[in-house]
Amino acid sequence: MDLATTVIHESPEFLRRANYVLDVDDIDAVRAEERQLNEEISKLNEEVQTYQDKLAFHRQKLEHYTKLLQDAQNRKKDACSALVRDQRLLLPSSMRAVPNEVLSNIFIQYLAMIHAKESDELRRSHSYRCLWIQTGRVYIPHTVLRLVCRRWNSVAVSEPHLWQTVPLMMPPSAFNPDLGASKALDDEYQGHVARNIARARTLPLDLQVRIARKKGTLSPSVVYDFLRRLMDLLPRTTYLNLEFESVTFDSDEDVLASIFPLPSRSDEFAVTNLVAKFLDSPQCKLLGRWILSLMVHMPMLNFARLPSMRGSLHATEIFPSGACYSRLSTVQLRDTTADVLAGLFACAHSLTGVRIDSLWAASANFPLLRHDTLSELSITEHNSAYRLQQFTLPALRKLEIGNPKIRAWSTHLRDCVLQWPQDAISRFFTQSRCLLTELVIHCRLTEPENIMPFLSSQSSLHLRPSPLGQRLSPFSGTYVAQHFPSLRTWMSLCQSSMMVSERVTRPC
User: Fold this and answer.
1) In the structure, what pLDDT confidence band is assigned to residue 482 with cuts at 50, 70 and 90?
2) Residue ranges of the alpha helices (H) in 122-169?
3) Could you tell me which CATH number the domain at 309-466 has?
4) I need a labelling partner for 444 at 20 to 30 A (CA). Which of 156, 157, 368, 455 fits?
């Protein structure tokens, strides 16, 4: 090996490639590598931008949740401070020294006021109807008591008298189209009801039943199951409030008749007070017959408030065959007809009081409505005096005409004016031969002098002013003073009044 070759072989790389000239293949290889590197750089730039965007998004989420966490911590701090403050206020409270028995009585009085208010307000609201669907909880006002403190919760749960009033609504399956979800909701709802009833132990129940649906029709099977569960509770129920509102069924009459389960002959229900309300609908006659059938199995029933019942040519179509309400003493009816009253008088031999909102006129050949024990009759219809000639009531002692809840501003209306038909009144008292001791008139007389012969013929009557503050009599002082000299002073104060609301009672 010569010296030149040795020198070139041992020279550094840059010296060996100093005079090296790239050929075409080498240039293409370099360009290809450049393109590949540019593509990789572009992809890396895109990934970097993507991660930067994600980082900005998560940074915003982090700031948002950090703020929420701080707000929650602040609310927790405020709640803890309020709890500590309330606990300090309760420490010296005299309520802590109240025995459980006294606290239970306070709760009972509170719930009595709540139930009385809710019957007119909350029960009619949409929130009450959908409360179970929205909260999954059977509505009871005890919740307010149970959330105060552990002691109040313990007293409320352990006092059976607080759980005697049981609200029953349609199960969730009546409102939820999802059958699978409805079954679970129904089971949970029935569990809540059963638990509340169990807390009442062996005490009698006050059932507040409401069947309503604003849209669509109710499934007959759902209604039947609900009514069967209701009837299972009737043997230990003393107060029963049934309310049917906007109830419609998409079934023929034969199917509808099978919706309402009838009790067996051996069934006896402990109900003493019954209130039934439902609006006029194609099913109202079936509802009425079902309620009257239940009443047959209530031997202790004393009071009944019934909805409008209008009969036909055959009263037997309304009352069950052989029906007898042996202890029923007081009945309140809305619109009704003479044949319904005739059937009621035939089934209830111990009646002492009847209140009717409106009585339809009977045919000319319809027999008189006779009852030998009825002592109080009230008809709120303004022209009810003409209907008296349809009755024969030898035991009548109190007669009330007109609406006692009429407002003072409506006294000028035509519906609040009463004409006193002397012929009809005379015919009624002639055929009844009763000794009236109390007369109440809640409307304005068009001709007050027409009533004076009747008052003078009733020796057992004695006038006294009504306890209602502004509702005084428009009777002429001259006529009253002539027949009742002892009332001359009182009547001189009543000559300018516009409203009749007199009570006529036997002297003490």
Assistant:
1) very low
2) 126-129, 131-135, 142-146, 150-158
3) 3.80.10
4) 368
